[in-house]
Write a structure and sequence with these properties.
There is one protein chain. The chain is of the alpha+beta class. It has one domain. The protein has a three-stranded antiparallel beta sheet, with helices on both faces. Strand 4 and strand 5 form a beta hairpin. The radius of gyration is 14 Å and the shape is globular.
């Protein structure tokens, strides 16, 4: 559990990101397509409703790491994550080590579609 105010703030950001990741997981399960489709930005900003376009391969690669999220590039929060790749207008961010990263990993429950893809690449 986060103890300092800074850790609590970073964990709250991770909570928002995990909720958006879960939403995208549901989309992938319902209507996964290898071509590009719209997903919700997985940033930690309070009222973000931005849609980002990812290919199925981009999305599945992202989900293979529970610390990674897809965000609109301008929504990356340097105190909470580091940008590990940028593709067009969106970026892959990875949580920095600490309670927020622990929370992100603990709440990652891949959809069946993601599980099948991860198993097929192993």
């Amino acid at each position: 559990m986060a103890s300092s105010p800074a850790d609590q703030a970073l964990t709250l950001i991770a909570f928002r990101q995990a909720r958006r990741r879960t939403f995208n997981e549901r989309l992938a399960e319902i209507d996964f397509a290898p071509e590009a489709m719209l997903y919700r930005c997985e940033c930690g900003l309070v009222a973000c409703e931005t849609a980002i376009k990812l290919t199925g391969l981009d999305y599945m690669g992202l989900r293979a790491n529970p610390l990674r999220f897809a965000v609109w590039s301008e929504h990356a929060i340097p105190e909470a994550e580091q940008v590990v790749a940028t593709r067009g207008g969106w970026s892959v961010v990875e949580k920095v080590a600490g309670p927020a990263a622990d929370f992100a990993a603990a709440t990652h429950v891949p959809s069946a579609a993601v599980e099948r893809w991860i198993a097929s690449t192993a």
